[in-house]
Amino acid sequence: MTRAYMDLCQKVLDEGIEKTDRTGTGTKSIFGYQMRFDLSEGFPLLTTKRVPFSLIKSELLWFIKGDTNIRYLLEHNNHIWDEWAFERYVKSESYKGPDMTDFGRRALKDVEFNTVYQKEKQQFCDRILNDEKFAEQFGDLGNVYGSQWRHWQTKKGETIDQLKDVIEMIKTNPDSRRLIVSAWNPEDVPSMALPPCHTLFQFYVANGKLSCQLYQRSGDIFLGVPFNIASYALLTHLIAHETGLEVGEFVHTLGDAHIYANHYGQVEELLAREPKEKPTLWLNPDKQSVFDFDMTDIQIEHYHPHPAIKAPIAV
Protein backbone atom coordinates (compact mmCIF):
# COMPACT_ATOMS: atom_id res chain seq x y z
CA MET A 1 0.00 0.00 0.00
CA THR A 2 2.63 2.46 1.09
CA ARG A 3 4.70 2.00 -2.06
CA ALA A 4 1.71 2.64 -4.35
CA TYR A 5 0.96 5.85 -2.44
CA MET A 6 4.62 6.95 -2.59
CA ASP A 7 4.62 6.39 -6.36
CA LEU A 8 1.68 8.79 -6.62
CA CYS A 9 3.49 11.39 -4.51
CA GLN A 10 6.63 11.16 -6.64
CA LYS A 11 4.68 11.37 -9.90
CA VAL A 12 2.89 14.54 -8.83
CA LEU A 13 6.11 16.18 -7.62
CA ASP A 14 7.87 15.29 -10.90
CA GLU A 15 5.09 15.79 -13.43
CA GLY A 16 2.38 17.83 -11.72
CA ILE A 17 1.05 21.02 -13.29
CA GLU A 18 1.09 24.10 -11.08
CA LYS A 19 -2.48 25.28 -10.59
CA THR A 20 -4.43 27.78 -8.56
CA ASP A 21 -7.15 26.47 -6.26
CA ARG A 22 -10.13 27.43 -4.12
CA THR A 23 -8.02 27.94 -0.99
CA GLY A 24 -5.48 30.26 -2.66
CA THR A 25 -2.60 28.03 -1.53
CA GLY A 26 -1.55 26.68 -4.93
CA THR A 27 -0.94 23.06 -5.93
CA LYS A 28 0.89 20.66 -8.19
CA SER A 29 -1.74 18.51 -9.82
CA ILE A 30 -2.31 15.61 -12.21
CA PHE A 31 -5.62 14.39 -13.57
CA GLY A 32 -6.72 10.76 -13.63
CA TYR A 33 -4.74 8.29 -11.49
CA GLN A 34 -5.54 4.86 -10.12
CA MET A 35 -4.14 2.77 -7.26
CA ARG A 36 -5.10 -0.82 -6.39
CA PHE A 37 -4.77 -2.47 -3.00
CA ASP A 38 -5.24 -6.18 -2.30
CA LEU A 39 -6.98 -6.09 1.09
CA SER A 40 -6.19 -9.74 1.76
CA GLU A 41 -2.49 -8.85 2.01
CA GLY A 42 -2.89 -6.48 4.96
CA PHE A 43 -4.68 -3.30 5.88
CA PRO A 44 -3.65 -0.29 3.73
CA LEU A 45 -2.73 2.16 6.48
CA LEU A 46 0.27 4.29 5.53
CA THR A 47 3.52 3.34 7.31
CA THR A 48 5.88 6.12 6.16
CA LYS A 49 4.09 8.43 8.57
CA ARG A 50 1.72 7.71 11.43
CA VAL A 51 -1.92 8.07 10.41
CA PRO A 52 -4.31 8.28 13.40
CA PHE A 53 -6.63 5.32 12.88
CA SER A 54 -8.97 6.48 15.64
CA LEU A 55 -9.86 9.51 13.52
CA ILE A 56 -10.52 7.32 10.50
CA LYS A 57 -12.81 5.07 12.57
CA SER A 58 -14.82 7.86 14.13
CA GLU A 59 -15.25 9.72 10.84
CA LEU A 60 -16.42 6.59 9.00
CA LEU A 61 -18.82 5.65 11.81
CA TRP A 62 -20.11 9.25 11.64
CA PHE A 63 -20.82 8.79 7.93
CA ILE A 64 -22.43 5.38 8.49
CA LYS A 65 -24.72 6.81 11.16
CA GLY A 66 -25.94 9.42 8.67
CA ASP A 67 -24.75 12.18 11.01
CA THR A 68 -23.68 15.59 9.70
CA ASN A 69 -23.03 17.42 12.97
CA ILE A 70 -19.44 17.65 14.24
CA ARG A 71 -20.59 17.11 17.83
CA TYR A 72 -20.24 13.33 17.45
CA LEU A 73 -16.69 13.81 16.14
CA LEU A 74 -15.73 16.14 18.98
CA GLU A 75 -17.08 13.62 21.48
CA HIS A 76 -14.47 11.23 20.07
CA ASN A 77 -11.70 13.86 20.04
CA ASN A 78 -11.84 14.12 16.25
CA HIS A 79 -11.16 17.64 14.99
CA ILE A 80 -10.70 17.05 11.25
CA TRP A 81 -13.95 18.84 10.30
CA ASP A 82 -13.67 21.70 12.81
CA GLU A 83 -12.49 24.35 10.38
CA TRP A 84 -15.47 24.03 8.07
CA ALA A 85 -18.00 24.36 10.87
CA PHE A 86 -15.99 27.21 12.44
CA GLU A 87 -15.88 29.03 9.10
CA ARG A 88 -19.67 28.94 8.88
CA TYR A 89 -19.95 30.28 12.43
CA VAL A 90 -17.55 33.22 12.00
CA LYS A 91 -19.34 34.25 8.80
CA SER A 92 -22.71 34.30 10.60
CA GLU A 93 -24.36 37.31 12.21
CA SER A 94 -24.14 35.55 15.59
CA TYR A 95 -20.36 35.77 15.70
CA LYS A 96 -19.16 38.83 17.65
CA GLY A 97 -15.50 37.99 18.24
CA PRO A 98 -12.24 39.12 16.58
CA ASP A 99 -12.02 39.30 12.80
CA MET A 100 -11.47 35.75 11.51
CA THR A 101 -11.41 36.54 7.78
CA ASP A 102 -9.17 34.08 5.91
CA PHE A 103 -8.21 32.50 9.24
CA GLY A 104 -6.53 29.45 7.69
CA ARG A 105 -3.77 31.30 5.84
CA ARG A 106 -3.45 34.11 8.39
CA ALA A 107 -2.83 31.63 11.19
CA LEU A 108 0.12 30.17 9.27
CA LYS A 109 1.81 33.53 8.76
CA ASP A 110 0.94 35.48 11.92
CA VAL A 111 1.89 33.95 15.28
CA GLU A 112 -0.08 36.52 17.25
CA PHE A 113 -3.21 35.98 15.17
CA ASN A 114 -2.81 32.21 15.42
CA THR A 115 -2.99 32.45 19.21
CA VAL A 116 -6.26 34.40 18.96
CA TYR A 117 -7.62 32.01 16.31
CA GLN A 118 -6.83 28.87 18.32
CA LYS A 119 -8.53 30.37 21.38
CA GLU A 120 -11.67 31.27 19.40
CA LYS A 121 -11.83 27.85 17.75
CA GLN A 122 -11.40 26.07 21.08
CA GLN A 123 -14.23 28.11 22.58
CA PHE A 124 -16.34 27.21 19.54
CA CYS A 125 -15.65 23.48 19.98
CA ASP A 126 -16.38 23.67 23.70
CA ARG A 127 -19.74 25.28 22.98
CA ILE A 128 -20.57 22.61 20.40
CA LEU A 129 -19.91 19.95 23.03
CA ASN A 130 -21.71 21.65 25.92
CA ASP A 131 -24.51 23.66 24.33
CA GLU A 132 -26.98 21.49 22.44
CA LYS A 133 -28.82 24.43 20.89
CA PHE A 134 -25.57 26.02 19.71
CA ALA A 135 -24.47 22.65 18.29
CA GLU A 136 -27.72 22.31 16.35
CA GLN A 137 -27.24 25.78 14.87
CA PHE A 138 -23.51 25.78 14.11
CA GLY A 139 -22.26 22.19 14.35
CA ASP A 140 -24.11 20.93 11.32
CA LEU A 141 -22.25 20.90 7.99
CA GLY A 142 -25.25 20.57 5.71
CA ASN A 143 -26.00 17.61 3.47
CA VAL A 144 -22.50 16.13 3.48
CA TYR A 145 -21.56 12.44 3.25
CA GLY A 146 -23.68 11.00 6.04
CA SER A 147 -26.79 12.71 4.73
CA GLN A 148 -26.29 11.53 1.16
CA TRP A 149 -25.37 7.96 2.13
CA ARG A 150 -28.29 7.45 4.50
CA HIS A 151 -30.91 10.16 3.80
CA TRP A 152 -30.79 11.10 0.10
CA GLN A 153 -33.78 13.37 -0.53
CA THR A 154 -35.79 12.82 -3.69
CA LYS A 155 -37.81 15.44 -5.54
CA LYS A 156 -40.92 13.67 -4.22
CA GLY A 157 -39.82 14.34 -0.66
CA GLU A 158 -38.93 10.72 0.00
CA THR A 159 -35.69 9.44 1.53
CA ILE A 160 -33.32 6.85 0.08
CA ASP A 161 -30.96 4.96 2.39
CA GLN A 162 -28.30 4.21 -0.21
CA LEU A 163 -25.92 2.41 2.13
CA LYS A 164 -28.55 0.10 3.59
CA ASP A 165 -29.92 -0.61 0.11
CA VAL A 166 -26.52 -1.47 -1.38
CA ILE A 167 -25.73 -3.87 1.49
CA GLU A 168 -29.05 -5.64 0.92
CA MET A 169 -28.34 -5.82 -2.81
CA ILE A 170 -24.91 -7.37 -2.19
CA LYS A 171 -26.66 -10.08 -0.16
CA THR A 172 -29.48 -10.74 -2.63
CA ASN A 173 -28.09 -9.82 -6.06
CA PRO A 174 -24.29 -9.83 -5.82
CA ASP A 175 -23.76 -9.84 -9.59
CA SER A 176 -25.58 -6.53 -9.98
CA ARG A 177 -23.69 -3.75 -11.72
CA ARG A 178 -25.63 -1.19 -9.70
CA LEU A 179 -23.92 -1.64 -6.33
CA ILE A 180 -23.32 2.09 -6.12
CA VAL A 181 -23.52 4.81 -3.47
CA SER A 182 -23.24 8.44 -4.58
CA ALA A 183 -22.45 11.41 -2.37
CA TRP A 184 -22.57 13.93 -5.21
CA ASN A 185 -26.03 15.47 -5.24
CA PRO A 186 -25.91 18.57 -7.49
CA GLU A 187 -28.94 20.12 -5.80
CA ASP A 188 -27.30 19.97 -2.37
CA VAL A 189 -23.75 20.98 -3.32
CA PRO A 190 -24.33 24.73 -2.70
CA SER A 191 -25.56 24.06 0.86
CA MET A 192 -22.66 21.82 1.89
CA ALA A 193 -19.75 23.10 3.97
CA LEU A 194 -17.48 21.16 1.60
CA PRO A 195 -18.81 19.45 -1.54
CA PRO A 196 -17.94 15.74 -1.53
CA CYS A 197 -14.38 14.95 -2.60
CA HIS A 198 -15.05 11.20 -2.59
CA THR A 199 -18.09 11.36 -4.79
CA LEU A 200 -19.10 7.79 -5.67
CA PHE A 201 -18.19 4.24 -4.74
CA GLN A 202 -19.13 0.91 -6.30
CA PHE A 203 -18.89 -2.66 -5.03
CA TYR A 204 -18.07 -5.78 -7.03
CA VAL A 205 -18.50 -9.40 -5.91
CA ALA A 206 -16.46 -12.22 -7.46
CA ASN A 207 -15.13 -15.55 -6.18
CA GLY A 208 -16.60 -14.94 -2.76
CA LYS A 209 -14.75 -11.64 -2.37
CA LEU A 210 -16.02 -8.06 -2.06
CA SER A 211 -14.12 -5.31 -3.86
CA CYS A 212 -14.76 -1.57 -3.82
CA GLN A 213 -13.85 1.19 -6.24
CA LEU A 214 -13.94 4.84 -5.17
CA TYR A 215 -14.07 7.75 -7.59
CA GLN A 216 -12.61 10.79 -5.88
CA ARG A 217 -12.99 14.06 -7.78
CA SER A 218 -10.34 15.87 -5.70
CA GLY A 219 -7.58 14.39 -3.57
CA ASP A 220 -5.34 16.25 -1.11
CA ILE A 221 -2.52 13.75 -1.47
CA PHE A 222 -0.56 14.44 1.70
CA LEU A 223 -3.32 14.95 4.26
CA GLY A 224 -6.49 13.51 2.77
CA VAL A 225 -5.67 10.56 0.52
CA PRO A 226 -4.12 8.31 3.24
CA PHE A 227 -7.34 8.80 5.24
CA ASN A 228 -9.50 8.04 2.20
CA ILE A 229 -7.64 4.82 1.39
CA ALA A 230 -7.93 3.52 4.94
CA SER A 231 -11.53 4.68 5.35
CA TYR A 232 -12.86 2.91 2.25
CA ALA A 233 -10.76 -0.17 2.99
CA LEU A 234 -12.40 -0.24 6.42
CA LEU A 235 -15.85 0.24 4.89
CA THR A 236 -15.17 -2.67 2.53
CA HIS A 237 -14.10 -4.86 5.44
CA LEU A 238 -17.22 -3.95 7.43
CA ILE A 239 -19.60 -4.71 4.58
CA ALA A 240 -17.77 -7.92 3.68
CA HIS A 241 -18.10 -8.93 7.34
CA GLU A 242 -21.87 -8.38 7.31
CA THR A 243 -22.44 -10.05 3.94
CA GLY A 244 -20.31 -13.13 4.65
CA LEU A 245 -17.70 -12.37 2.01
CA GLU A 246 -13.91 -12.17 2.04
CA VAL A 247 -12.25 -8.89 1.12
CA GLY A 248 -10.95 -8.39 -2.41
CA GLU A 249 -9.43 -5.18 -3.77
CA PHE A 250 -9.83 -1.53 -2.97
CA VAL A 251 -9.47 0.45 -6.20
CA HIS A 252 -8.85 4.16 -5.73
CA THR A 253 -9.50 6.32 -8.79
CA LEU A 254 -8.57 10.00 -8.49
CA GLY A 255 -9.66 12.92 -10.64
CA ASP A 256 -7.62 15.98 -9.61
CA ALA A 257 -4.80 14.52 -7.49
CA HIS A 258 -2.81 17.35 -5.96
CA ILE A 259 -0.13 18.29 -3.48
CA TYR A 260 -0.56 21.70 -1.85
CA ALA A 261 2.41 24.05 -2.19
CA ASN A 262 2.79 24.21 1.60
CA HIS A 263 3.12 20.39 1.75
CA TYR A 264 6.06 19.93 -0.66
CA GLY A 265 8.64 19.67 2.11
CA GLN A 266 6.55 17.18 4.07
CA VAL A 267 6.12 14.98 0.97
CA GLU A 268 9.86 14.98 0.37
CA GLU A 269 10.42 13.94 3.98
CA LEU A 270 7.92 11.08 3.59
CA LEU A 271 9.52 9.89 0.35
CA ALA A 272 12.90 9.59 2.08
CA ARG A 273 11.51 6.92 4.44
CA GLU A 274 11.31 3.17 3.91
CA PRO A 275 7.86 1.52 4.15
CA LYS A 276 7.26 -0.85 7.06
CA GLU A 277 5.19 -4.02 7.48
CA LYS A 278 1.46 -3.66 6.81
CA PRO A 279 -0.82 -3.71 9.84
CA THR A 280 -3.88 -5.94 10.23
CA LEU A 281 -7.49 -5.18 11.07
CA TRP A 282 -9.60 -6.74 13.83
CA LEU A 283 -13.40 -6.55 13.79
CA ASN A 284 -15.54 -7.70 16.69
CA PRO A 285 -16.96 -11.08 15.57
CA ASP A 286 -19.94 -10.60 17.88
CA LYS A 287 -21.18 -7.68 15.79
CA GLN A 288 -22.83 -8.48 12.47
CA SER A 289 -24.49 -5.37 11.09
CA VAL A 290 -22.38 -2.47 9.84
CA PHE A 291 -24.75 -0.19 11.72
CA ASP A 292 -24.06 -1.83 15.10
CA PHE A 293 -20.30 -1.24 15.21
CA ASP A 294 -18.79 1.32 17.55
CA MET A 295 -15.24 2.50 18.20
CA THR A 296 -14.20 -0.42 20.42
CA ASP A 297 -15.36 -2.99 17.85
CA ILE A 298 -12.70 -1.93 15.34
CA GLN A 299 -8.98 -2.20 16.09
CA ILE A 300 -5.78 -1.92 14.09
CA GLU A 301 -3.02 -4.36 15.07
CA HIS A 302 0.73 -4.59 14.37
CA TYR A 303 0.94 -0.96 13.25
CA HIS A 304 4.49 0.37 13.71
CA PRO A 305 4.81 3.37 11.38
CA HIS A 306 7.37 6.14 11.11
CA PRO A 307 6.52 9.26 13.17
CA ALA A 308 3.77 11.64 12.11
CA ILE A 309 4.57 14.60 9.85
CA LYS A 310 2.55 17.71 10.55
CA ALA A 311 1.16 19.89 7.77
CA PRO A 312 -1.39 22.74 7.61
CA ILE A 313 -4.87 22.07 6.29
CA ALA A 314 -6.13 24.22 3.40
CA VAL A 315 -9.64 25.50 4.17
Automatic annotation (TrEMBL):
It comes from Vagococcus lutrae LBD1. Pfam families: Thymidylat_synt (PF00303). PROSITE patterns: THYMIDYLATE_SYNTHASE. This is Thymidylate synthase. GO terms for molecular function: thymidylate synthase activity. It catalyses: dUMP + (6R)-5,10-methylene-5,6,7,8-tetrahydrofolate = 7,8-dihydrofolate + dTMP. The gene is thyA. GO terms for biological process: dTMP biosynthetic process; dTTP biosynthetic process; methylation. It is an enzyme of class 2 (transferase).
